[in-house]
């Protein structure tokens, strides 16, 4: 495999973190990454430096780099940021949505209904991600999308835990359907309120996962 451009190396390592292929606290050995990605040592080193600046990777003195594990408190802070930014995106989406996009939103909502009813939490979670991403696309807020993408990897394992939490889909489904209907109704204030309410519910669910003896350490 030929050498890979630096940004490609960054993207591939980042996506591996997002997907959980590289686990929290896992050591990132440059030689191994070079072999896996077909990239030069300098490109891998530069990519890791970029990911350190993004907060996805940390360097440990005398031990090299590893995937950074974030605390529950940090996950809640990131979700609070999402609440503000995605609330804005929902409002902008309501102002810009076309009839065709509204139909697509309702189609996603219908699939979410079906997966929640059948108990298929993996597909329900996939639809959840699809819905949020599509709303950001409709909004046209590219800077907001960049912010969400930058923090997405830090939230991945917490989102997976919530997605598989018993009863969580039944709670979030009506919230998502309200977001969809508010956007389709082109009601900006209602859409922003619905998105904020949904993500506030996510924060409450995260709080409820905190062990009674939690000292703030990562899971």
Automatic annotation (TrEMBL):
Keywords: DNA-binding, Transcription, Transcription regulation
UniProt domain HTH gntR-type: residue ranges: 3-70
GO molecular function terms attached to this record: DNA binding; DNA-binding transcription factor activity
Tagged with keyword Transcription: yes
CDD domains named among the record's database cross-references: WHTH_GntR (cd07377)
Domain of life: Bacteria
Annotated signal sequence range: none
A Pfam cross-reference name: FCD
Alphabetized InterPro entries for the sequence: GntR_C, TF_FadR/GntR_C, Tscrpt_reg_HTH_GntR, WH-like_DNA-bd_sf, WH_DNA-bd_sf
Gene3D superfamilies per the UniProt record, alphabetical: GntR ligand-binding domain-like, Winged helix-like DNA-binding domain superfamily/Winged helix DNA-binding domain
PANTHER family hit by this protein: GNTR FAMILY REGULATORY PROTEIN (PTHR43537:SF45), TRANSCRIPTIONAL REGULATOR, GNTR FAMILY (PTHR43537)
Protein name as catalogued: GntR family transcriptional regulator
Organism this protein belongs to: Nonomuraea longispora
Higher taxonomy: Bacteria, Bacillati, Actinomycetota, Actinomycetes, Streptosporangiales
């Amino acid at each position: 495999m030929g050498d890979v451009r630096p940004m490609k190396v960054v993207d591939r390592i980042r996506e591996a973190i997002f997907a959980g292929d590289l686990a929290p606290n896992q050591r990132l050995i440059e030689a191994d990454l070079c072999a896996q990605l077909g990239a030069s040592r300098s490109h891998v080193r530069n990519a890791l430096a970029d990911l350190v600046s993004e907060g996805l990777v940390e360097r440990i003195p005398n031990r090299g780099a590893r995937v950074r594990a974030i605390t529950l408190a940090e996950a809640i802070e990131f979700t609070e940021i999402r609440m503000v930014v995605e609330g804005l995106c929902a409002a902008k989406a309501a102002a810009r949505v076309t009839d065709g996009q509204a139909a697509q939103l309702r189609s996603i909502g219908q699939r979410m209904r079906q997966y929640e009813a059948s108990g298929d939490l993996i597909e329900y979670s996939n639809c959840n991600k699809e819905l949020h991403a599509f709303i950001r696309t409709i909004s046209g807020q590219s800077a907001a999308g960049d912010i969400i993408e930058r923090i997405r990897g830090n939230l991945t394992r917490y989102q997976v835990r919530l997605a598989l939490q018993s009863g969580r889909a039944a709670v979030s489904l009506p919230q998502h359907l309200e977001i969809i209907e508010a956007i389709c109704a082109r009601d900006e204030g209602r859409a922003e309120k619905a998105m904020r309410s949904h993500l506030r519910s996510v924060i409450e669910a995260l709080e409820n996962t905190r062990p009674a003896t939690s000292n703030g350490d990562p899971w």
